[in-house]
Specification:
This protein is of the alpha/beta class and 281 residues long. Helix content is 37%, strand content 24%. The protein is built from eleven helices and ten strands. The protein has helices at 65-72, 95-98, 112-115, 122-133, 138-151, 168-180, 198-215, 226-232, 250-255, 260-267, 272-280, and strands spanning 17-29, 36-49, 54-59, 80-85, 88-89, 105-108, 186-190, 218-222, 235-240, 243-249. It has a six-stranded mixed sheet with strand order 6-7-8-3-9-10, with helices on both faces. Strand 9 and strand 10 form a beta hairpin. Helix 4 (122-133) packs across helix 5 (138-151), helix 4 runs parallel beside helix 6 and helix 8 runs parallel beside helix 11 (272-280). It starts with 16 loop residues before the first strand and ends with a helix. The model is unreliable at 1-12 (pLDDT under 50).
Amino acid sequence: MNPERPQANSNQFEPLLRVSGLSKQYVQRRPFSRQKIVVSAFHDVSLALFPGTTLALVGESGAGKSSLARCIALLERPSTGKIELAGENLLALDAEQLFPIRREVQMIFQDPSSALNPRLTACEIITEPLLIQGAGTKSQRRARALQLLEQVGLDPAWERKTPLEFSGGQRQRLAIARALALGPRLLILDEALSNLDAANQTLILKLLADLQAAHSLSYLHISHDLRLVAEFADDVAVMYQGRIVEVKSARKLFASPQHAYTKELLASARSVESILLERSA
């Protein structure tokens, strides 16, 4: 997607996001008992995501991908480890220090129907993050909303429509517009395309690619669909049983997987080869 992107093994470039030794445990109570147990969602995860690139995170259901995404977005706090954004350790900051930084990392969820407030209009949904951050006047926020509606392929005249008046693909475009409102550098896409049909997936992928090229956005793309990963990602991290077992460029990983689980994943999705050939043509 971006032939001029920095290589992950180069010392010449610094990652936008660096995750080091990150782990997350949950304390749960056994059914019909007061006894508590510790459950590990993921363990000792280290990743690097470079500016203007897409890192895909793939793996089986329950591998810990979404928990990792929520920790990186600081919707949950990890148990151990470090999360650095542009070299700054986010976990060392207090709530007041984090508040202005939160605009840099935004998340787009799998189901826009549950992620968007059905009582708000499209304009109100997009301007809500701006209002929370105290950005701009009311007229400036509305102007920003109209600009974003057009940018994601929605008619600005629909500003007063509620989410239920949009189709599934249009709702996801609205969710993208909301995520872009604060001008983030990193978008976390948590299975953001999985609820869409193939036609809408293709259209949203193109939109995301255009936005990335225009704004140098970085994407952490969580997906179980290797076809989409092959089409969209620069690099791929494979997660298995709460651990990262392999990280490579998309082309190298699909051409020469090393871990047994990666080989198992690819064996069920050989159609990715034709997509990779199209990308390199």
